[in-house]
Design goal:
By secondary structure, this protein is of the alpha/beta class. 35% of the residues lie in helices and 17% in strands. The chain has two domains: 103 residues, Transcription Regulator spoIIAA, CATH 3.30.750; 154 residues, Transcription Regulator spoIIAA (2-Layer Sandwich), CATH 3.30.750.
Length: 298
């Protein structure tokens, strides 16, 4: 191991809300890595593999020596730490309790498939040890869209995973991809994604706009007729999605760099206000407070 307490394999990804967290890799890459819209873990050096348990525990020990109680949040990287066994995750969480006593939140990305072999009791054990939040890339609630982008999930498998997490007391931050269904499947993508969120009632919900900095070739292998939505089409899809949401106390964010129109609020308290903002932008996009293309950071 180098002088640094943690060995990173570039590029390293984390959710925007984990900007101040200690990023602790417990796996490299993504165990599925089949989604044709995703470019995060396609680099050769990001092939999936679990980190050795000894290396991870040593990293935690050394971070404890270096940072002590100064670490307040930890994000377990890479793409799906939850693919690890409950035993290994428990060992990691217990080591953080011993060595990083200031930690108040531990989070991770989570693929729905990685919860199929974990019971609610196992997840509750992890919650008791400090795992408090997971980020679930649902992407869509529409089975046609999910199949076309090779997500390997369905409306039901995602809902079941989200319900299991809720039962265990682990908060869920869910992401939906605006525009993922293209022009042809836009309406059903919006309506069925709203239906999935209504069924799950997540604590947090975010939307990003689908984008392909490296090109659309991979997506079009399974989705040859995919056509991107215009900025107006993306906002119309969002209006349909937000209109269909019946959420009680979900914190909603549509403020990622990819989003043209920034929306923030709590659903359902702020649903009417956000719909007014969307409809105003749709009616007069030329005067709407849209993010300029150069500022989208893509």
């Amino acid at each position: 191991m180098t002088d640094a307490p943690i060995r990173y394999v570039e590029p390293v990804f984390r959710p925007p809300s984990e900007a101040d967290s200690l990023i602790l890799p417990v796996t490299d890459g993504c165990s599925w890595n089949g989604c044709t819209f995703c470019e995060m873990y396609t680099a050769p050096q990001k092939r999936f593999r679990p980190r050795g348990e000894e290396e991870v525990l040593e990293s935690i020990r050394r971070c404890g020596e270096q940072f002590g109680a100064g670490v307040k949040r930890v994000f377990l990287a890479d793409g799906d730490a939850m693919t690890l066994s409950t035993r290994r995750l428990a060992n990691i969480l217990e080591a953080m309790r011993r060595n990083l006593p200031g930690v108040r939140r531990v989070s991770s990305y989570c693929l729905p498939r990685n919860l199929r072999k974990k019971s609610a009791n196992e997840l509750r054990e992890l919650a008791d040890l400090g795992l408090s939040l997971v980020y679930v890339g649902a992407e869509s609630g529409d089975n046609d869209v999910l199949a076309r982008v090779n997500k390997g999930e369905t409306f039901d498998t995602t809902r079941e995973a989200l319900e299991k997490l809720q039962e265990a007391g682990i908060k869920r931050s869910v992401m939906i991809l605006n525009g993922l269904g293209g022009a042809a499947l836009s309406r059903q993508h919006a309506l069925n994604s709203a239906a999935l969120m209504n069924a799950a009632q997540p604590e947090y919900l975010a939307t990003l706009v689908v984008s392909f900095p490296k090109g659309e070739t991979r997506l079009r292998e399974n989705f040859p007729d995919w056509e991107p939505l215009s900025v107006l089409g993306l906002m119309q899809e969002m209006e349909l999605f937000v209109s269909g949401l019946e959420l009680k106390r979900t914190i909603f964010r549509s403020d990622h760099a990819s989003n043209w129109l920034v929306l923030r609020g709590t659903l359902g308290a702020d649903k009417s206000r956000m719909l007014r903002e969307l409809r105003s932008a749709i009616a007069a996009p030329e005067t709407a407070p849209l993010r300029p293309a150069w500022a989208r950071g893509l």
